[in-house]
Amino acid sequence: MDDVKLGLKENWKQFSLLVLVNAFVGGMVGLERSILPEIAEKEFEIAATTAILSFIVVFGAVKAISNYYAGALANKFGRKNLLVLGWVFAIPIPFILIFAENWNWIIAANVLLGVNQGLAWSSTVVMKIDLVGEKQRGFAMGLNEFAGYFAVAVVAFLTGWIAAEYGLRPYPFYLGIGLMLLGLFFSNFLIKDTRHHVAKEENTSEVSRLKNIFKETTWTHKNLGSVSQAGLINNLNDGMAWGLFPILLSHKGFNLEQIGIVTALYPAVWGIGQLFTGKMADIFSKKDMLFIGMLLQAIVLVILVWAETMTHYVVLSALLGWGTAMVYPTFLATIAENTHPQDRAKSIGVFRLWRDLGYAIGAILTGVIADLVSTEAAVMLIGILTLISALIILFRMDYRDKGAIKILGWFNG
User: Fold this and answer.
1) pLDDT at position 175, please?
2) Burial of 336 (0-12, 13-18, 19+ CB in 10 A)
C-alpha cells in the first residue's frame, strides 16, 4: 500500500492506457451515429420517426441499467473485470450490423452496445478517478470524455464518408471489428485494477458516507440530485441530436456527406472541448460551469428551430457541442467531490443510470412529437426542458469547491 500513489503524474501510464481504451469504447457508438437512420429508411423501409428512434430507446435503457450495475458491482468484482466483460459483450456487434436482415437485428445489436457502453465506459471513468485523487478530477474526466466523444465524432464522420463512397453496408462496420479487437486486447492484457488506489484515498477523505446512495444521488442531496437531473436532460439533447439531426438534415435536402459533417461536428467539439473544460472545472466553480453549459445548450436548441443553411447547422452544432463539453466532465467531477471513495462507484452508477435514461426518454419524446407535430416542435421542447434544468442548478446547488473562482458570485453569493 505504501508504494501506491495518487495523482495524474504518478499514474500517467495506466491513465493514458485507459484514455485510449475509452476512445475504442466511444468509437463503437460512432459506428451508428450518422448512418443507422439512413439504413432504416432505405434498406428496411421504416419511415416513422418513432420506429427509427427505437434503436436509441433500447440503447439508452440498456446502457442506463448497465451503468447502475457497473457502479454497484465495481467494488465487489473489480473495475478491470467489469471493463473486460464490457468488451466481451461488444464482440458480436459489428457482425450483427453487417449481416442484419431486418430491424430486429439492429435492436439486438443495440442491446449489446448498451451493455458494452455501460460496463466499459463506467469502468474507465471510475478507474481514472481512483488514480488521480482529489486535485485533478475535472481534468481527468475531461481527458476521459474527450477520448470517448472525439472517437464518436471521428468514427461517425468516417462511417458517413465510407457509406457515401462504398454503400451503407458492409464497409462502414469493418471499423467496428478493429475497435472491438483492440479494446478487448488492451483491457485484458494491459489495464491494471485500481482497488489499492481506492484504499489509499479512504485514509484521507473528509467526505461523509451517504446513508442511501440511490435516493441521495437521485434527488435528496442538493448537489448530487441537481447533477443527476441535469445529466438526464443533457442526454435528452443527445438522444434528440443522434436521432433527429440526420432525419432533419435529410428532409432539408442535405446529402450523406453533409449529414456526416454536421453529426460529427457536435460530438467533435464536445470531445475536444473537454480538454479545456475539464481543467476549467478544477479552477472555476462546478456549479457555475454546469449552469452556463446547460443554459448555452438551451439557447442553441431554441435557435436551431429556425436554422436552414449548412452554415447555420455547423455553427449551432459547434455551440451545442461546447455547451455539452462544459457540463460533461463537470458532472463526474462533482459526483466525485461530493462522495466518499467507498460510495463513489455506486453513486456514479446511479448518476449514469439517470443520465443515460435520457437517451431513451429523449428518443421516445422527440420521436412521438416529431411524428404528431413536427421535428421543429420536438427540438423546441427539448430546449425549454434544458432551460428549466439550468435554473434548477442555479437555485438548488451549493458551492462546495471553496477555493474555486465563482463566475456567478455576484448573483448568489
Assistant:
1) 96
2) buried
